[in-house]
Structures are given as structure tokens and as C-alpha cells.
Design a protein that fits this description.
- By secondary structure, this protein is an alpha/beta fold.
- 34% of the residues lie in helices and 15% in strands.
- It contains twelve helices and twelve strands.
- The strands form two sheets. It has a seven-stranded parallel sheet with strand order 8-7-6-9-10-11-12, sandwiched between helices.
- α8 links the parallel β7 and β8.
- α5 crosses α7.
- The protein is globular and about 70 Å long.
- The two termini are 26 Å apart.
């Protein structure tokens, strides 16, 4: 009998065919609407495998309803949507999809840095709204990128790829990480510093660290006060690493110059969120890995992880 799999979002046909070749599948048929929790509660009871996204809250209560579940394949690098401890206690393998989105996310991070620094979204709206009536010396002036100092918090794969892009702009690169990366320091002429020094000296502070209990609210009022008034905060990691209420106050009071954000504590972000009322915020809908090729690679890798576990093989990327 084929293993039973539930897929929590409609996938491209080639990925469905990949899984369906050896499994019996059921799939939530919406592309842009997350599967309701009550549907997950029903479907998880009998399946052997679950293919899910970051949008699904796979908590202990849900996992305890699963009778046969062997593997949860998360189509993402992060996995804070899953109760990892509960999965491990119940003997359920959890996998993720690192590596394939590194360069795409680094591209987006640097693009967000540039668009925030040069006020591109604001300038585009200015033109479209008919406000461009003349040229003036300081009209829509932004911050320079070439030769500026970038501080990268978290020097994993994506952080290193961001540093390579910064090197192309002749930026001075500071980084803070749990461990020092001596080889990368030599390759990219980077400097390992403590977080406080990074915050005080950087023109751009880029958050690239994973979300953990230790990094929750890593950037809050105290840290924001350390930053330059001309500094720009960029976050493409996880929303909860930044205290959004404190960030709003810092931007409102012009303690820092601007912020570029691709991630938020609650997603999708409410249109009533205070940060959206500020013209010195560039906000994106969590599109860090959103290139066609990368999303297909992520889905393919998630499918491979799923099928390996169901075939009693070790998947390429195991969380627990």
C-alpha cells in the first residue's frame, strides 16, 4: 500500500507528479489561501507524511492527533512554525530546505537595502501620484551605499552571500555571529565585532540570523538607540527578531533613518500595522526566496526529503 501524504498548498504539477509516483496524496487545492487548522486536524490523523509551508502551525496538539505520521517536510529554511520538541518526542522526522534559496535571498536583501537607502518606492509613488512638478537640490535624497559600512548580524550561508554583494560596492563589512569565520574574513576583508560595536558603527544593519528564543527581540529599544541617526535597518530573517513596537518609535522619532522589512511577527501583515503608516519604511510580503527557479528547487527538495523519509532513508536535510 502506498504511503499517504497530505500537501498543505497547491503545488506545481511537476512536484505533485514527483510525490504521486510513490505516494497516495491529498492536497489543499488553494494556491494563495492557507489550509485551515481544522482541515489539518482532520487530514493529519491517518497520513504518513505531511508536506507543509511556514504558514502552517504544526503544534503539539495537532501532532498528537497523528496516528501514523513519520515525516513533516517543511518547504522553508526556518521551522519555527513546527513544535520541534513535540515532533522529536513523538518520533516524527522534520526536514527543511536550506541551501537552495541562499543566493536568491541575498539578492533580495541587497535589493531591499538599495531601495530603502535610495527611497525608490517612495520616489515611484511620488511620480505616479503626480507630485513631481520640478527638480530641487534635495528632492528625495537618500543615503549612499558605495563605500558605506554594513553590519551583518548572522554569518551563515545567506549572510556570507550578502557580504560578497557588499564587497562589490566597496563597503566596509562588519559582522556579528556566534562563531568567528576566519576564512571568510580573509576572503572578504570582513571584521568580526561585538553586537554593540556593530550597531554603533554601521550605516546599514542587516539581520541574517535564524530565529530562536535567544534571538527573539534581539533588536529592541536599547539596540536601536545605539544606531546612527542616519542608519538603515534591514530584516529578511524573521520578524520576531525585531521588536516592531520599538522599531516604530525609533523610526517615528527619527532615531534611525529608515527600515527595509521583508518579514514580520504576524504574517500576513495587517494594513493597520503602524509601520505601514511611515514613509521611511519599505515593506515587502516575505518574498526573500521568491524567484521562479528557487521556489521550484525548494519544492523539489522538500519532496525529496519527504520521499526519502517515507522510504526509511535519511533525508538530505533533517532538523530532528
Amino acid at each position: 500500500m502506498k504511503p499517504k501524504v497530505f500537501i498543505t498548498r497547491k503545488l506545481p504539477q511537476e512536484i505533485i507528479a514527483q510525490i504521486e509516483s510513490t505516494c497516495s496524496i491529498k492536497m489543499w487545492q488553494e494556491e494563495d489561501v492557507p489550509v485551515p487548522y481544522e482541515v489539518l486536524e482532520k487530514e493529519i490523523k491517518e497520513v504518513d507524511g505531511l508536506f507543509c509551508l511556514l504558514t502552517e502551525n504544526i503544534d503539539r496538539a495537532l501532532l498528537e492527533k497523528a496516528k501514523n505520521l513519520k515525516v513533516i517536510s517543511n518547504m522553508a529554511v526556518g521551522y519555527n512554525n513546527i513544535d520541534i520538541q513535540a515532533a522529536e518526542n513523538l518520533g516524527i522526522t522534520v526536514t527543511n530546505t536550506p541551501g537552495v534559496l541562499t543566493e536568491t535571498t541575498a539578492d533580495l536583501t541587497f535589493a531591499l537595502l538599495m531601495s530603502t537607502a535610495r527611497r525608490l518606492v517612495e520616489a515611484s509613488d511620488y511620480l505616479k501620484n503626480g507630485e513631481w512638478q520640478t527638480w530641487s537640490p534635495m528632492q528625495l535624497t537618500g543615503q549612499d551605499i558605495f563605500g558605506a559600512t554594513i553590519g551583518i548580524i548572522g554569518m551563515g550561508r545567506i549572510g556570507a552571500s550578502l557580504a560578497k554583494r557588499a564587497k562589490g560596492f566597496d563597503m566596509n563589512i562588519l559582522y556579528y555571529n556566534r562563531s568567528q569565520k576566519s576564512d571568510l574574513e580573509k576572503e572578504l576583508d570582513m571584521q568580526y565585532v561585538e553586537l554593540e560595536y556593530l550597531l554603533k558603527k554601521s550605516d546599514f544593519v542587516c539581520i541574517m540570523t535564524p530565529y530562536t528564543k535567544e534571538t527573539e527581540n534581539l533588536i529592541a529599544a536599547k539596540e536601536l538607540r545605539m544606531m546612527k541617526e542616519t542608519a538603515i535597518l534591514i530584516n529578511t530573517a524573521r520578524g520576531s527578531i525585531v521588536n516592531e513596537a520599538d522599531l516604530y518609535q525609533a523610526l517615528l522619532k527619527k532615531q534611525i533613518w529608515a527600515a527595509g522589512l521583508d518579514v514580520f511577527k504576524e504574517e500576513p501583515l495587517s494594513l493597520n500595522h503602524p509601520l505601514l503608516s511611515l514613509n521611511n519604511v519599505v515593506a515587502l510580503p516575505h518574498i526573500g526566496s521568491a524567484s521562479i527557479n528557487t521556489r521550484l528547487k525548494m519544492a523539489k527538495l522538500a519532496a525529496e526529503n519527504l520521499l526519502a523519509a517515507l522510504n526509511n532513508e535519511r533525508p538530505k536535510h533533517v532538523v530532528v
